[in-house]
């Protein structure tokens, strides 16, 4: 009997697990030990006012700023069991250790131990499991006691085993083991909580949570509610069975009537006290682990410390997901709600989704592109043809080739057009007749009807075609020219407000029937680069081909944006699909399931969304970290690699941008929380961090720093440069002065030289004139002497002719002697020689030096020849005949050893 009961219990558990495993779940973000580089186990988790996450990890304190994780171990390497942020401090408790962490001005985390204040209490292997604050004091508990930390003093509140600690109605509440609940009054006295608490007798309370006037109390197997001094037990058999099997471990309130129950064995349960129902989110739903060791709720996000990893759940997110973790479903291309059930078209087939159970329709395996309901009939465009879905059965219509879409021709006919891999077929749903339009012998992705005789076909690769016909006879096929700069590859054709619209090459075009041509659609110019995946009637949904953002618009005022991050980066690239169920609910197909979106909540969230304030947590170079509280100045030699670490707590912010202004201007996106600036120029800089949401909400942080100039541009060196410049200017001035003086001296020397030369020239001219004058005088004197001697010699000659006629021969002889003496007067020669030497200085010396054998008579002849006198002129001067002069000249030539052809006069004039 016991074995049978045990098997039944296991079966019930499996059924319960199956029931809730396939529910639509809110977004769940997993952070594995690999992500945060810490131990698997996390014992507690808390969120500060700015949104930073703190986790008590086996290896230390884990801090998550929204972009990156940091691990700060204790010196003792102890396991941290509890964490509590309060007034810029993060209090942590571990084995025989209690203290707090603080951020230093340079962003480091410093730990201050308060354990020395506990030594007087003689702790015995105590571990501190829970921390809270009340009336300016910090309270922390171990299994042996509850302590108060106030004004740097620690006192013991109660020396008993307490299993829970909290604040309710401005009272510190704790739970003595299996002895109800007690509180600390204003006089620091311990009293029992008011009211009848007999239900708690013998109950080991695991956790308590206060919300307004309500106190939730949890044991391992039950949940209690205390309000207005009355205690009641939650009576919900399914919930109690769940808690009994799963072991309640934590309680946290998320609204006035909803609480989260964290369990040891089955994840969490979201319990609504008003409706008395609950939803389970466990490993099957997307959690990393079913053991919940810590819970924190802030900014509408639930943070879970797990036995393996950390998870985040956006409980109130407008988006909920269905995820097929088996991989059987594959990428979903379309979804349709038909007769109360959901049908999914994926790359592996068509599935029904009933009661949260997924089931492949028989014979519907293989790629399916589209689901379309026409007049109450559901059709599937399958890789093998076109099918009807009737009572979850796959009924073939055409299986010759795969199909892309099926469309109603108009409201008055039962004919449908099927676009398939090889063309287009007309199908009569009443008669079942199927006719292929043979003229269209190429693949057609979809068709749009302009009027009863015209439709447009989109070829998946080669462009757009306009087809005119008469009741689908005599088809006239016209290929549309290339729109834009490229060929019309993978075009999309739509009909909006009775107008044919085409999206080609990331641009929107509209058809002008008067010009029979397409032209740019300026009304949709702002949506260039975004394809249309749903067109109305009241909502138009675009997807940006570059960013992957979904934009839901009514083409007037409303625009709602969804980023890839909002959909967990799970969109089916190039095959996105958006299905509108009603004005509020819509669906988006994903690569492993689908998402359900509540547009009303999404609108409200977009209006009220919180964008967290980014902050700097480190600013450093290769050598040191700098204070974040004042403007740092970095030395130039250490500025080649500047590291900036930033945080952006989890919010609706989807990216963190930076803008650096200064000597250089840089901008970009910070992905992992770390930013490096390399080889910046020296000068002042302004760094701006901007967190932005989907609707352009922006939250910013500013930081200023400067890079000191290199040593050769420092103030000291500038002074040196100034002195050098001044010295250089002075040196240049001095050099110019020296040059000026030198030039002046040169000018003076030149002037003096020119003056001297001018004087010398004047003197020379004077001397030349004197010489010329003396030469002339010499010549005149010589000529006069020659003339005189010539006359005397003529007289002597006449006397010689008539000497016989003279009676006094003695007297005649005396006269003749006087004439000879007059002719050969030595005084005249001396005067001549003196005058000659004045005109021809050193002549006789030079001639004698060269010809020392010459006689005085030879020198006399040389002087006369130097004066260029003829033999006739020389004869009287020497007192000899012309013949005698010639003979003397001959002899002189011989002495000088001159050739006969050398003119003696010219020789003497030229060489002496």
TrEMBL record:
Membrane-spanning intervals of the chain: 711-734
Entry-linked InterPro entries: Ig-like_fold (IPR013783), Sig_transdc_resp-reg_C-effctor (IPR016032), Tscrpt_reg_LuxR_C (IPR000792), WD40/YVTN_repeat-like_dom_sf (IPR015943), WH-like_DNA-bd_sf (IPR036388)
Pfam families attached to this UniProt entry: GerE (PF00196)
Keyword Transmembrane among record annotations: yes
Top-level division of the source organism's lineage: Bacteria
Keyword Transmembrane helix: yes
Gene Ontology biological process terms from the UniProt entry: regulation of DNA-templated transcription
GO molecular function ontology, one term from the record: DNA binding
Domain (HTH luxR-type) ranges: 847-912
Alphabetized UniProt keyword annotations: Membrane, Transmembrane, Transmembrane helix
UniProt protein name: Regulatory protein, luxR family
